[in-house]
Amino acid sequence: MKAIRRFTVRPVLPDPLRPIGDLARNLRWSWHAETRDLFRSVDPERWAASGGDPVRLLGSVPPARLAELAGDGPFLRRLAAVAGDLHDYTTGDRWYQSQPEQLPAAIAYFSPEFGITAALPQYSGGLGILAGDHLKAASDLGVPLIGVGLLYRHGYFRQTLSRDGWQQEHYPVLDPNELPVVQLEEPDGTPAQVSLALPGGKQLHARIWLAQVGRVPLLMLDSDVEENDLGERGVTDRLYGGGSEHRLLQEMLLGIGGVRAVRTYCRLTGHPAPEVFHTNEGHAGFLGLERIAELCAEGLDFDSALESVRAGTVFTTHTPVPAGIDRFDRELVARHFGPDAELPRIDVDRVLRLGMESYPGGEPNLFNMAVMGLRLAQRANGVSLLHGNVSREMFAGLWPGFDADEVPITSVTNGVHAPTWVAPEVFRLGARQIGAQRAEDALTVGGSDRWDAVADIPDQDIFDLRRVLREQLVEEVRERLRASWRQRGAHTAELGWIDGVLDPDVLTIGFARRVPSYKRLTLMLRDRDRLMGLLLHPERPVQIVVAGKAHPADDGGKRLVQELVRFADDPRVRHRIVFLPDYGMAMAQKLYPGCDIWLNNPLRPLEACGTSGMKAALNGCLNLSVLDGWWDEWFQPDFGWAIPTADGAGTDPDHRDDIEAAALYDLLEQRVTPRFYERGQSGLPDRWIEMVRHTLSLLGPKVLAGRMVREYVERLYAPAALSHRSMGPDAARDLAEWKGRVRAAWPGVTVDHVETSASDTLAELGTTLGLRVRVALGDLGPDDVDVQVVSGRVDEEDRIGDATVVPLKPVGSADQEGCWVYEGPLSLDRTGPFGYTVRILPAHRLMASSAELGLVAGPSEELVAAAGLLMR
């Protein structure tokens, strides 16, 4: 019989055990081994059955066992020590507290998904895991972050397979009362809420749940509340579910409701108000509109409020393809804003202009969330060096007249939270070498370029460690594979073969990620005979563990999954290649350490970063990857192998896949497997072990989330906080007025005449020429602009590459025609074809980039033709 109503009955902990409840509610347990060990000791069997979730564990322990523990002196001493450690961790000074005082008092970090732990399944893939690692690293460093997201009642989806290998989705209901979260409450005990106005006089209400991630509070909004109608209750039902309006409402709740939740949290707790707002991808972009509305309510006009908001906003883009960005019909957006809906005091046209693709090649009727994010942020970044380049090209239309490399989008390469992803066995080996505290500091704070102590670990210890991790993975795979086959309808009697799946002494390759087409799940199947030859090689076999979810609406991705599953079902190879359904954090924490090779073969350059390979590397796993994302930036032959790519725009996609698959097979056959199986004089694969050692010692410090968050603090958060403080109401009004004046006057800004001291077009290296430029500034003056000479080597079409920019200085005052003369040096510092040009840019002390306004004036074509600007 089914129950007609459900309750969550929480255990009543005896007074001596009260601290264990606090430990369960702080998600630091998800990366703190001593806390997990304490919970395991409560009841090892129930701990395993709970999936390592302390809240579920405590809800299942019998009262008699709790009473027994309440009188267990050694257990209580362990409990006191772990609770004391958490108190010191959450209250003591850390890296951030030792930095200069001008750092922000608080930063609000918005993301549509957060992957903190499998016990809080609010993530779909890399974006969420990255956001979770960002929060954890911020906690370890003492960065005063406030996370903001949504609480999805079904999370993402659970994946199983049909008998014929087709992906099936399941959406279990998540009860917040059974999750490691608590409800934020008003002083009178009522639930804290935020509300959004909807068209037709309706309201969208949401409660605020708090997940404590070490020192960092994570606020999660939940619309499944009694005050809402059925439709509004479903706004936070599924991550990335529903149609356009559903997604728009989710993103309005995340952005607008999220700011209101932050204000509520700070009011209730006394937490400092954020000076910096960080938008992790465009989904949360509406947060800027809410902040503009707040300032307008305080008396600022829209343009001034926009400048104030931009000053303290950081926007991170994660997608290298336009199709990965949320775009909404302008009429849909317009209906949800204005007098009859949300932000009634803001003109709807001003809202729309922030997101419209009003640039060459854009869709003028679509509202683009990433475009809005960029227009509302003074600072923006991609998530690897290569992705920064791709993003500058992708969004160059927002800054017309500027070369892509001058588009104001920088990059901070992602990192991963080592305490979450490093296997306990790996940590213990490091702790044995340098001590537990130093090992913990190395993995969290980072700061060194290399981990030299790895060089002193004996080869035998590294070899033994790798085998132990591989053996654990084999056991995990067999257990999961057996469960998967039972879900597919197989009987236990049919599954005896699973006991022989994988071998702890065989080279193990891992491939696990989301399954959009560009990640090429099935590239390894391109030549099945060669793959079979690799899997079944009599002396140098390989085995492959594959996992991944296709989006529920992506039948193409599901077909790729089915193709891989059907190959892995073949009795000839099923002991050497497996597909594990329901890829998530719990599986990943076994998969990364247990693999010898981490495979990544996306279509370059469509992988923004690819952090799974970083997690593998921290466990001594070597990368075999296309030069994309972070691997393009940090690849060295010491760390693994680069798969050659056929990037030419004219290459047929099928032919490209054939070429790159062949290159993958060649690498495996000729270089990877021989290196793994060859033995040195000691009887160990010493050359392989040396690569593992290099990966740990040289790559390990680079891939840390601690390094990433420190870069965000130093390069983005601190400058944004200074800009925010400089942008008081008067400064914001002045800047807005100045920008309006510059835009109005810009048609009158021209370069009228350019001359140099050169007598011909041939000059010697090291020569410095005098440059004299006459410019018209219209209604502007020299204080409003920078006049620059841009020089460098030129190509066949006279395009300047690797440019040097030198400012020119005004000489005297304006002439009778209102023009100004600028002078300066032009250094001929490179041989070969060399060119220069002159340009005028707006200049203001409160702008973060001279490209910010997207305005530039240069010589006319007639002037260029007359000037003979090219030198050889």
From TrEMBL:
The modification N6-(pyridoxal phosphate)lysine is found at K615. The keyword Transferase applies. Gene3D superfamilies: Glycogen Phosphorylase B. Its cofactor is pyridoxal 5'-phosphate. GO terms for molecular function: glycogen phosphorylase activity; pyridoxal phosphate binding. The keyword Transferase applies. GO terms for biological process: carbohydrate metabolic process. It catalyses: [(1->4)-alpha-D-glucosyl](n) + phosphate = [(1->4)-alpha-D-glucosyl](n-1) + alpha-D-glucose 1-phosphate. Its EC number is 2.4.1.1. Residues 13-120 form the DUF3417 domain. Keywords: Allosteric enzyme, Carbohydrate metabolism, Glycosyltransferase, Pyridoxal phosphate, Transferase. It comes from the Bacteria. NCBIfam families: more_P_ylases. Belongs to the glycogen phosphorylase family. PANTHER family: GLYCOGEN PHOSPHORYLASE (PTHR42655:SF1). Phosphorylase is an important allosteric enzyme in carbohydrate metabolism. Enzymes from different sources differ in their regulatory mechanisms and in their natural substrates. However, all known phosphorylases share catalytic and structural properties. This is glycogen phosphorylase. It comes from Streptomyces paradoxus. The lineage of its organism: Bacteria, Bacillati, Actinomycetota, Actinomycetes, Kitasatosporales.
